[in-house]
Known about the structure:
Blueprint: H1 4-42, H2 50-83, H3 86-92, H4 97-138, E1 151-154, E2 157-164, E3 170-180, E4 183-196, E5 203-214, E6 223-233, H5 251-257, H6 260-286, H7 299-321, H8 332-350, H9 353-363
Antiparallel strand pairs: 1-2, 2-3, 3-4, 4-5, 5-6
Helix pairs in contact: 1-2, 1-4, 2-4, 2-6, 2-7, 4-6, 4-9, 5-6, 6-7, 6-8
Amino acid sequence: MISILDRYISREILKTLAGVGIVLYLIFLSNKVVRYLGEVASGELPGSYLLIIISLVSIRYLIILTPLAFYLAILLLFGRLYRDHEMVSLSSCGVGAGRLYRPVFQVAIPMALVIAVLSFYAVPWAASYEARLAKEFSKNLEFTGISPGKIHVVGDRIIYLEEMSEDRTEMRHVFIRAAYKERDILMVADKAHMEVDPYTQERKLVLVNGSRYEGNPGETDFRQMRFSRHSMRVAASSKKVTSSSYEAMSTMQLINDGSLAAAAEVQWRLAIPLSILLLAFLAVPLARIQPRQGQFGKLFVGILIYVVYINLIAISKAWIVQEKLPLYVGLSWVHVLLFVLTLLILLKQYGTYWAGQVMFTFDRGGRQ
């Protein structure tokens, strides 16, 4: 049976989590959206791929930002309870730190399970789908980010065209200026389209029925030639929609792979849901503030601890791949470090009393 206190704290945690999560999500995602819009405008990303890529990135941000949002939600909520002296009232009724953990973990445990499913299944699927998109984009024959009647700078080339076909696969009345071995090259063609080399899989810009002028202004060494077909290699796009091969592999594939990089990826996927539980364990005592300290007194310290914790996880993952850290140690030492830090904070604030209180309140099954 869930008590009134449990329902109140759980409800307030979820409300605060929703607010904090939406703000963090919009901040991080808006930066990506602006970058992708710029790449669509410059022709590095097909416009038809924009919503798909944003959706895939959203899945990644969801699992990465959820632990942070949940951690900040607990800090903000309990900071407010201390500020409004609600904690003093609860303490006078015999509610201590141990009792507060029950409603917190009533939210944290289901959330960790959901994030675990996303981490082990949804994110690998999103990464593999991104890899397929990158392969499709490398063979894309459409002209993206190029409009008729405008001058476009694509790499070291300047392109101007008068018309574009409705399916955006053919340019008409094309002017191109490029440079080759410190010489200017001007090309004028009736039509232009993209082709993929069947052997190298490289994209080529093919000009049809045109002229090529090579030379520098003011010099006598000037050449002109007519062509019925002329191809130019198109440089690979700088769009980074690809993912590491291990990130795109399913969890079972990683386990069967047996390499250090695969093992590090598995531990990384496990670390995300585990961090929700550990950060929730830390946030309860860390949120305790002095009467005149203010609601956000421990927020800076909490964010600093989170940044160090996440960076140590990322560094440890790289160390596993580089064989600087034994696999049996893996990322576990970072989790143990955070757990020990939480125990030290609890011991400093409450002594050994809090441990017995935790066991007592959970054994009561929620009755008051």
